[in-house]
Amino acid sequence: MGRQFLRKAVNDHCKECIYDPVEDGTWLKQVENCEIHSCPLWGVRPVTQTSKNGLKGHSNDLGEQI
């Protein structure tokens, strides 16, 4: 399974789970603000580049440096 396939699968799951087009913000911003910390994908959910910069030096749950 390629890395891009895995990223797309996580993105699609998160978007389906939490995105509400009636609420404010893009699907990415809504997913970024997700508070379901018990979700096994929470640590690898998609976030904006701005947030990634704020987390620089930390690693995600896949052990990737962000």
Which sequence of SSEs, written as H and E, runs from N to C?
HHH
How far from one another are the termini?
21 Å
In DSSP terms (H or I, runs of 4 or more residues), the helix count works out at 3
Shape: globular
Number of strands: 0
Helix content: 40-55%
Helix and strand composition category? mainly alpha
Q: Tell me the Rg in angstroms.
A: 12 Å
- Strand count, sense and closure of the main sheet? none
**Number of spatially distinct domains:** 1
Classify the beta-strand content into a percent band.
Answer: under 5%
Describe this structure in words.
This protein is mainly α and 66 residues long. It has one domain (3-54). It contains 3 helices and no strands. It starts with a helix and ends in a 12-residue tail after the last helix. The mean pLDDT is 83.
Report a brief summary of the structure.
This protein is an all-alpha fold and 66 residues long.
Q: What are the salient characteristics of this protein?
A:
mainly alpha, 66 residues
